[in-house]
Amino acid sequence: MQVTVYNCRPFDEKELFTEYAEELGLDIVLCGDAPSPDNVSLCRGSRCVNVITSRIDAGLMRAFRDNGVEYITTRTIGYDHIDLEAARACGIRVGNAPYGPNGVADYTVMLILMTIRKMGAILERTALQDYTLAGLNGRELRDLTVGVIGTGRSGETVVRDLSGFGCRILAHDLYEKETVKQYAAYVPLDEIWREADVITLHMPLTGDNRHMINAETIGRMKDGVAIVNTARGALIDSDAFIEAIENGKIGAAGLDVVENEFGLYYYDHKLDILKNRELALLRSFPNVIVSHHMAFYTRNYVETVVKDSMKSCKLYMEGKENPWEVR
């Protein structure tokens, strides 16, 4: 039973893949690059391929099928980077590898604190040995209302963690949880737009919520609102968002994800001209912190997704019940 692993990082994943493949009785082919027409033939002889956040479009899906692939697993919770319609048409099953919520929740709370305390500007100033205080006056979390949109595992953990700061917490989700109600009040989205000083996003990307933060919804928010996104970049309309930062409607932002990030993140682009003008603009603002889609990235995450994604492949090939299969 052979699995081809793409996007394999040599510094933290390679050794684990080798260890778990031996433990599970699997043969593996390791490739450090994202799957592409140039390297798709590496999967020939493998019924399963293992990827991360690289976009798997219809053309690549057909190439996988033509090389004998039956199952694709992604070492992520989200799988919007995989064309599920193309997978269905090609008869390829798809799985994901959920991981614990604490890493993303920790990172989210960190970004919230960094945005309200103007940490981006502080770090820039300190790097230049400018130790003045003018313009760096921040806000205390206990004085603010935080809106948490999406109360799945990560969102619920953020709510619980924020409760220790004494802030008012509003939450929104299609499916309400009693465990969340201990710390937060579920309200309609419009109330979060109107009342929240800080808004943090924690939901998968769907056709219904794409660009949920747009010119119209931003217009209903408080002046100076802080936005944090550790979910999916396309939840935010970048053009409207940038305009709102420039006119002061949005006072600060912490973004671990941005629109059109595929092909950019996890690669060294120091000498490249990036084809993402919005990212360049966002990085230029002193009140915006941008990191490269790494809120999930902890030791626990790496061990969990490597092992579970390989177990998922083995269960598929053995024809057994597979808790990680999503389609």
Describe this structure in words.
It contains twelve helices and twelve strands. Helix 4 crosses helix 6. It has two domains: about 120 residues, NAD(P)-binding Rossmann-like Domain (Rossmann fold, 3-Layer(aba) Sandwich), CATH 3.40.50.720; about 190 residues, NAD(P)-binding Rossmann-like Domain (Rossmann fold), CATH 3.40.50.720. By secondary structure, the chain is α/β, with parallel strands linked by helices. The mean pLDDT is about 95. A seven-stranded parallel sheet has the order 8-7-6-9-10-11-12, with helices on both faces.
Tally the helices. 12
Strand tally is: 12
What name goes with the CATH superfamily of the largest domain?
NAD(P)-binding Rossmann-like Domain
Structural class category: alpha/beta
CATH topology title of the largest domain: Rossmann fold
Radius of gyration: 21 Å
Give the total of domains. Answer: 2
Q: SSE order in H/E notation?
A: EHEEHEHEHHEHEHEHEHEHEHEH
- Main sheet overview: 7 strands, parallel
Strand content: 5-15%
Q: Please, what is the average pLDDT?
A: 96
The CATH architecture classification of the largest domain is 3-Layer(aba) Sandwich
CATH class bucket of the largest domain: Alpha Beta
Q: Give the CA-CA distance, first to last residue.
A: 21 Å
Report helical residue fraction.
25-40%
Q: Tell me the strand order in the biggest sheet.
A: 8-7-6-9-10-11-12
Shape call: globular
Low-confidence stretches: none
